[in-house]
């Protein structure tokens, strides 16, 4: 059983919440979200907001908060082999109450189908918020190139 090692990023000005499934091995090692160098999350979100791609953890936190984005994951703990979403078992989910009560979250987005499936199964009833499923920024989602991802993820700005 692996427990999520990264605290959520949000403040009272956060308007959108982006949820992944569970941090990859590289993200767990970096102790920050989307830490795998091939994950396109930072490139996609920077392009959507017309900003340079943040490099350091401090730059990434500042980018998220400046753009009113809260980030966390659906899963608090699970059994997982490496970084494979398909291997996830014995899920315990995170409690979104601290974020939803502190910030005026208008829309919840999930990064990929695995996060969406677990959100729908375990969280939607508790939060009362529907979630919008965006295509995964993971390098495993090779069907979506950077341009297609940026176009689809553009909806987070509206």
- Give me the count of strands: 7
In total, how many domains does the architecture comprise? 1
CATH T-level fold name: Uracil-DNA Glycosylase, subunit E
Give the biggest sheet: 4 strands, parallel
Q: What is the count of DSSP helices, taking H or I runs of 4+ residues?
A: 7
Using the 3D structure, state the CATH architecture.
Answer: 3-Layer(aba) Sandwich
Radius of gyration: 14 Å
Structural class: alpha/beta
- What topology, given as strand order, has the largest sheet? 3-2-6-7
Low-confidence stretches: none
Please report the first level of CATH classification, the CATH class: Alpha Beta
**Terminal-residue CA separation:** 38 Å
Mean pLDDT: 95
| Mass-distribution shape | globular
Please name the fourth-level CATH homologous superfamily.
Answer: Uracil-DNA glycosylase-like domain
Q: Can you write the helix and strand succession as a string?
A: EEHHHEEEHEHHEH
* Helical content band: 25-40%
Fraction of residues in β-strands: 15-25%
